[in-house]
Amino acid sequence: MNIKNDLTEGNIGSKIISFTLPLLFGNFFQQAYNVVDSIVVGRFIGKEALAAVGANFPIIFLMVALIMGIALGISIIISQYFGAKQKEKIRIAVDTAYIVLIISALSITVIGLIFGKYILILIKTPAEIFPSALIYLKIIFIGMIFTFGYNGISALLRGIGDSRTPTLLLVVATIINIILDLLFVIYFKMGIKGVAIATVISQAFSFIMGIIIAINKNLPIAPRIKNISFSFDILVKSVQLGIPTGVQQILVSLGFMALTRIVNEFGTNAIAAFTAAGRIDTFASMPIMSFGMAITTFVAQNMGANRIDRVKEGVKKTFIYSASISVFLGFLIIIFSKYLLLIFTKDLEVQKIGQDYIKIVASFYLFFSIMFTFNGALRGAGDTLVPMFNTLISLWIMRVPLSYLLSRKFGTVGIWWGIPIAWFFGAILAYFYYRKGNWEKKKIVENT
């Protein structure tokens, strides 16, 4: 075992921060993918194309959510095996993960190409952006095998405590994506088609490079041709862990789609503002999400090693770090919201709507950090059902209905208010369930 990636020993605070920083850096470049697309599209093609890219996000997210939930499930199992120092079980879990990812990626590609058009219709995509949205969607689905491949190998790497290699892959791939975006859109005049092709090529590169690195370093997550093992037991465990997380991601995606449908009723300006402000919001919330990802792996490894005391201290420190930075960043982007939106669009009406979004949502990042930290800890412990139900309640019982009802009276401002209200209830549910301590009995692997 690589002691550098072992989170069961050493100073807790420094281990969490050293694991989180590459995740944060990687998430930054992951979002740079999306933001560069939005900037190039918004500034060099137009707000209609920007709205078309934004309309597709929840659909693509929906298609990958379930299988990536299973990948996370396998990642949690691998983390616990890693903490328990069970090398052969790690190898079997990795083989099982690759088999499931390949079959699922091909299936999702076919489903996406067949039903993508009808989903765009279902969410009431405006007629003026529909053709562009459909072109973008089809190209992204054609390259879905690379999306699954990259996300899968990244999950496996994080499972063994390596958050640096996925970051390296993203940095290089993002640079390629930026160059290709500018080349295809500005020089070759390919429009939104060029942006989609650039994204697929970049993800293909990051996936292939990840495989090469894993093989060259002889990592336990490297794919192998001979002596491949498939464990139905591990698949069942990963499904038990991953399905709730996958369903949670689907609920989030469907929530985005429902929210997008509500926004779509207010026209192209509202969609463009939602897309641009949403990109800024995503960047600001990256530290929170990165700490949430880090605590999942930290808790999983230490559960495998029977270090409950270390788990609790790690969760406490992670919450302090995440909450502090969430308040600071929320304050920062509210102050500079006008200038940040100017990066995406020169349209004054789009900027005004976007500023409303940022001022309302960013004021309540603290609740978001509470929800993410404790949900992440529960996942690492193997208690993935609770975060799923938390999402169901906060998103579908609170956010979507409230956004719809408030939008009837207050317009787009009402939509935005539904978001922090949902975070508040999600934070309360996650925190109090964690305090109950039931997660301590959810350990997956047995020590030998």
Structural description of this entry:
By secondary structure, the chain is mainly alpha-helical. It has one domain (10-441). 83% of the residues lie in helices and 0% in strands. The chain has helices at 12-44, 47-83, 87-122, 130-142, 144-159, 164-187, 192-216, 232-264, 268-304, 308-335, 337-342, 348-362, 365-381, 385-410, 412-436. Helix 1 (12-44) runs antiparallel to helix 2 (47-83) and helix 9 packs parallel to helix 13. The protein starts with 11 loop residues before the first helix and ends in a 12-residue tail after the last helix. The mean pLDDT is 85.
Q: Top keywords for this entry?
A:
single chain; 83% helix
- Count of strand segments: 0
Instruction: List low-pLDDT spans.
Output: none
Q: How far is the first residue's CA from the last residue's CA?
A: 16 Å
As a percent range, the share of helical residues equals over 70%
Describe the biggest sheet? none
Please compute the radius of gyration using only Cα atoms: 21 Å
Number of domains in the coordinates?
Answer: 1
Shape designation? globular
Question: How many DSSP helices?
Answer: 15
Category from helices, strands and their pairing: mainly alpha
Work out the strand percent. Answer: under 5%
Mean pLDDT: 85
**Pattern of helices and strands:** HHHHHHHHHHHHHHH
